[in-house]
Amino acid sequence: MNSMTGYGRATASLGTYTLTAQVSSVNRKTLDLTVSLPEEWEALEPMIGELVRKVAVRGKVHVDLELTGAKGAADLTWDEQAASEAVDRLAAFAKKEGVDFQPTPELLWQIANAQRKGSERPHADEARPVIERALGEALRGFAAMRAREGEALLVDFLTRLGLLAKHIAAVAERAPHVPAHYREQFLKRLRDAGLEVDLNDERVLKEIALFADRCDITEELTRLRSHLEQFTALLKSGGEIGRKSEFILQEIGREVHTIGSKANDLVISRAVIELKNELERVREQIANVE
């Protein structure tokens, strides 16, 4: 089991530059991949997508490739000629518009920075093998983090499934006693109303039989136990389980709701409330699973 939350980072040398590859992800029902990289390398996006899809099938994944010089920003120099020409054009435009032009140090700094130049970035074909290595390393760290978080989620799920099984067992233990309890209450109401009670009266027997049929939850309990077994097996199966688990949880919720509607018993109703609360916690956590 893998979490959909992860992070990985790696660096590599690329000529006089340093390439930094970072991969991060958060929850998303499908795979939503975004890539940030120098525009000269945009042709490499399909290759980056293929590498990511080998380790992630769900989640909002962001890949960031950053290229910095060996000395950072200091290795960049100003293009003095281009900066001077820019100032001249700006002065000519001001004169044409009849505006007094007095360049300030701040303005000169802005123009000079806009005309900085550095060494030419490596071409995409040259950068490709280095990107593959760095991104591969970052993705391995990314996948390892998702796996570690997935292990923690699995422990939490198994604990909660144990609680669900405990509540289901309480419901199953109580269910056979519900018709007898109803029979006692029904006969008591008849006596309290001053009516003669004949235990062999067909109407009495029919009412009790109808109630027993309406509150019978044997089939629901059988399906509920089956769904829990499927869910447990799915959690331990590995690979992508998010979509399948959401479907099984939906089926579990349906059976729990039906039991609550049919049981007509205070003890079972309380157990159903606990089942619904625990089931909601599982649903919240499963949203973090790939």
Describe the structure.
- It is a single chain.
- The chain has 290 residues and is of the alpha+beta class.
- It folds into 3 domains: 6-72 and 126-143, Ribosomal Protein S5, domain 2, CATH 3.30.230; 77-117, no CATH class; 147-286.
- The protein contains 9 helices and 6 strands; from the N terminus they run βββαββααβαααααα.
- The chain has helices at 45-53, 80-96, 105-114, 124-174, 178-192, 202-214, 218-235, 242-263, 266-286; strands spanning 6-14, 17-26, 31-36, 59-69, 77-78, 116-117.
- The strands form 2 sheets. Strands 1-2-4-3 form a 4-stranded mixed sheet.
List its salient traits.
290 residues; alpha+beta; Ribosomal Protein S5, domain 2; four-stranded mixed beta sheet; two-stranded antiparallel sheet; 9 helices
